[in-house]
Amino acid sequence: MPRHKSVEKNVRKTGRKREKNLIQRSRLKTAVKKVRTAANKETAIPELKKTAALLDHLAAKKIIHKNKAANLKSSLQILVNKK
Questions:
Q1: pTM (2 decimals)?
Q2: Shortest CA distance to 51 belongs to which of 40, 37, 39, 21?
Q3: Which residues, 6 or more positions from 70, have their beta carbon under 8 angstroms from its beta carbon?
């Protein structure tokens, strides 16, 4: 157990940040899944744009690594182009 008030506050802060980050990662997984399961190219392109924007946002906030965002965008773009 923390013995100092500042440590207790830090524990609360990190807990809140962790929950927010988990929510953001869940949003990302859902967005990627929508792109991958899109029936055709016409429905996949708008979803890809939304997902790319979300990836850029999460990489800027350092919730995911910038290289992971770039790799995911690239692989999704390749997948959409094949449809």
A1: 0.82
A2: 37
A3: 59
Alpha carbons 29 and 63: distance in angstroms, whole number:
13
Find the helix packing angle between 5-36 and 66-82, rounded to 10°: 10
Q: Are 39 and 10 in contact (CB under 8 A)?
A: no
Residue 55 contacts residue 69 (beta carbons within 8 Å): yes
Q: Who's near 37: CB < 8 A, 6+ residues apart?
A: none
Structural domains of the chain, ranges and CATH numbers in brackets: 5-82 (1.20.58.110)
Chain-centre distance of CA 41, in angstroms? 22
Tokens of residue 2, six digits: 């923390």
Angle at which helices 66-82 and 41-60 cross, to 10°: 180
Residues 37-55: tens digit of each pLDDT: 998 999 999 999 999 999 9
